[in-house]
Design a protein that fits this description.
The protein is mainly α. It has one domain (about 5-85). About 85% of the residues lie in helices and about 0% in strands. It has four helices and no strands. It is elongated and about 50 Å long. The termini are far apart. About 15% of the residues are buried.
């Protein structure tokens, strides 16, 4: 890998790690508004942290891609649930 690609991997991993830690350490109100429970917050935070770690390890790219796909799917479901909860 080149230095440019490592820079992109490290940047993406740092952002995912920060997002995952913020979900695990807080954001209780957002997930309470969804109404599903706190298990989704723990699952989303764990997926983001594991994906961040997998981007820095010499694993096949499909492992990181699966983690990123799960992160995007969870974010979309949470957003749709928030919209549904706020609708009159």
């Amino acid at each position: 890998m080149t230095a440019m690609s490592w820079t992109a991997y490290i940047g993406a991993a740092a952002l995912l790690l920060l997002a995952g830690i913020s979900k695990l350490a807080g954001m209780v109100g957002v997930y309470e508004a969804v109404g599903i429970g706190q298990w989704l917050r723990y699952a989303a935070g764990s997926i983001e942290v594991m994906t961040a770690v997998s981007l820095l390890l010499p694993l096949p790219t499909s492992v990181g891609g699966i983690g990123l796909a799960l992160t995007v799917a969870e974010a979309g479901c949470t957003h749709l649930a928030l919209i549904a909860a706020s609708a009159p």
